[in-house]
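pinned: reference chain
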Amino acid sequence: MRPRTPAPRRATAISAALALLAAAATAPPATAQPDQRATPDRAQSPSVTQAYERIVNGSFASGTADPWWAGSGVTNRLVDGELCARVPGGTANPWDALIGQNGVPFEAGQQYVLAFTARADRARPAAAALGEGVSPYRQIAKHDVQLTTERQSFTFTFTSDLDFPDAGAGQLTFHLGALAEESTVCVDDVSLVGGVKPPGGEPTGPSRKVLVDQVGYLPKGPKRATSLHPSTSPQPWTLTRGGATVARGTTTPKPADAASGDPVHLIDFSAVETEGEGYVLTVGEESSFPFDIGASHLGDLRTDALKFFYHQRSGTPIEAAHVGETYARPAGHVDVAPNKGDGAVGCLVDCGYTLDVRGGWYDAGDHGKYVVNGGISVWQVLNSYERAKLKGTEAALGDGKLNIPESGNGVPDVLDEARWEVEFLLRMQAPDGMVHHKIHDVNWTGLPLLPHQDPQARRLSPTSTAATLNTAAVAAQAARLWRSVDPAFADRALAAAERAYAAAKANPAKLADPNDATGGGAYNDNDVSDEFYWAAAELLTTTGKSGYRADVTSSPHYKAAALNGRGIDWAYTAPLGDVTLALVPNGLPAADVAATRARFAQVADGMLAQAAAQNYPAPYDTVNYDWGSNGLVANNGGVLGIAFDLTGQAKYRDGAFEALHYLLGRNPVGYSYVTGYGEQPVRNVHHRHWANQLDPSLPIAPPGVLSGGPNSALQDPIAARLLQGCAPQKCFVDHIEAYSVNEVTVNWNSALVWLATWAAEVAEAPQQPEGGCSVSYQANSWQGGFTANLVVRNTGATPWTAWELGFSFPGDQRITQSWSGVWSQEGNRVRATNAAWNGAVRPGGSVTLGFNGSHGGTNQPPAAFTVNGARCSAG
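pinned: its structure tokens
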């Protein structure tokens, strides 16, 4: 993904917490003349021996104020290379008006030197405070200074008695309140030097030295792992389950590769096909996280990745009945104070009208809604359904599968969720047929900030050719898919698509302003030939009209000419047209369709060759990793999946699953990049609501959210501070402020949706039990609770000596009491194994079991059941 202009962030400290900081201050007021050293307020430790700089962008040479934040009522801006804060008058306490920086690392017992220059537009007091930026807001040091209209230099030395070595909770703030009149304070050359560890601490590598997919491997799929053993000679490995050895083998040493920089040992245990949980791989003294062999997790991943979009809805409350109390929130941007609202939004550059642009999905961790990112996202969600429908496997995406407000209306849930965004795209269409590029706040907001608490005014950015073509493409696709579901909506979508395409042809070079990056990302794109091709491909496939056929066949992108191994993103959309033309009947010459399909296999072969050379294989054809690399990896997994669909060759299927293995833990940082999946998933994604790292009262992200992943360019201050010199695949930190590596976006999750949907279908297809099984499920529900009774039947010819039942709840159901089995629940995933007395089930026999449970809303039944990892029919 091409990076958006980065967003400034601000602190989360509240006035009461800052009052604690002020009350803890012990230093007397100090004044300083230019370059004068002030008296330290704590006992001195030995002299500073390291020059580790703890402040990011203290000289403001970057041309931005990032990551400096301003407190409530204070406005930051750069003036002639200084950070100047406009401070309101009339505040009661010094800490009522703040500027500062979060994530400052400190080490207990170490000495630091703080230096800065400052001036004001009138003589006034100020203070620099250092300490903890989250509860309980402990203070390390505070220094009072007297500012004048002349620029002065201040230097203070102190010793820290608190320990924040990894840039977590440490903070530097300037206290600027308690003045009757409004004033302006400017600071520059802010430096904090000291400590004995580099910022972020000494690199230690992943917490486990045997790296696996932390969730699971397919019984018949590739099962490979990477070990960080120091020897250069082959080493023995063992695979165990429940303490018993299942398999043994010998590693294959490999030298360091460019992507990771790690010399490693590779392990292949693909021959192990027995399904089950709790496998552990060991090399020497090091062991992997436990993992499963089976397929049921893929159905869960498909559902959770899709549910992300309901969480991101704008303009409607997110209800506890569908997500649980933890993730419920009021509607955002619906013209209820303090929101300015999306009901009648005017233009950033006056256009003479307003638009009602309520609805849609919030793009990422911010409150913006962007047509060019929404376009690829909703297209991928819809294409996952269209592909499944063509194969007759769409039932897994049907009505009631997601537990969203529309569940039960007779329309597949995936279409209902996608329509929330399609309707928004249609609302963004201007009277002349062009489409506005985006809508977001006039200024960036800080973290955390729930959507309904956003006080900023909202503005429409000008229309653009790229946004107009995104809407044309998606609306044409929607017209196809809703034709048999809601013909009136299909007609409306197609009319909007054709009108948008005509407007784009009349305005073929109306490009988004790269400088329109205040309050939201610019999303500028100087080449829209790929969007023209994509839109024409969708319109041709939907209408069959000759004009669209001519535009498709004359495009330089025709026959997948531009498909490559870097990956698909919002600024590179020609491959979306290729997917449609390769999979959906369109009336093009058979030879041309065959050439497009062949190109997918050709590019997939290149991905496989590239991944084979890596120690942590990821289908990603570049040395350096871009912003959103995980989304690109997932999209390339999708290309491999399409190559398998078109050829049936197992190598492409296996390559697509290797992409999932990388995302779910087999990578050099040892994280599962999908929240809630694996033993060590990312927790602190960049998001204004899922901001537990900054405010413990707020949640971490729900399961199924894909982090952006490694970014070699280190395009945010936290990543720049912590990751200097990182190998490309290691340029990642699980930190909420590290937005260039750990943000979430709709288009990365849509890539995960497509890949997980494909993977679940492929995994489930061959998993029908050799002997057969069926499960009946009957629930008696009341408000807040229910009783479920299940009959599990052996419909095959082979006796069972033991059984394991698996399923996933579609909502927030929780088991409270159970019988006739050993039950466990993790999130919405449920497992039950036989009791000591009912494990043996003869052919034709059955076992009855059940449980009591609670629920917060509609008590939808599970969609599917497995026994011993095999998919069962309804009993």
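why pinned: DSSP finds 16 helices and 36 strands in the chain. Residues 474 and 520 are 23 Å apart (CA to CA).
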